Amino acid sequence: MKKFLVLIAGFAFFNATSAAPVGSRAQRMQNRFNTADTNHDGKLTLTETQVGMPRVARHFSEIDTAKNGYITLSQLSAFMAAKE
């Protein structure tokens, strides 16, 4: 019985520490957005996207539907959803 419990504990540890993909697609996008948002204002300027999210920068004017000179995570999410 003791060996069985050790085996189960080892299996649980392995599963908790394995290199499985972390987070959903939305979470990964939010993480990238937050990293690119260098001044942490919740918005990305064209310059921030050029540095931190170059593929997004190529579509900046399409994503910035309000033409404010910045994009939000919700605008980026809506753009990505429309492209799927």
UniProtKB/TrEMBL annotation:
SUPFAM superfamilies found in the cross-reference section: EF-hand
Keywords for this protein: Signal
Signal peptide: 1-19
Matching PROSITE patterns: EF_HAND_2 (PS50222)
Location of the EF-hand domain: 24-59
Gene Ontology terms, MF aspect: calcium ion binding
Protein name in the entry: EF-hand domain-containing protein
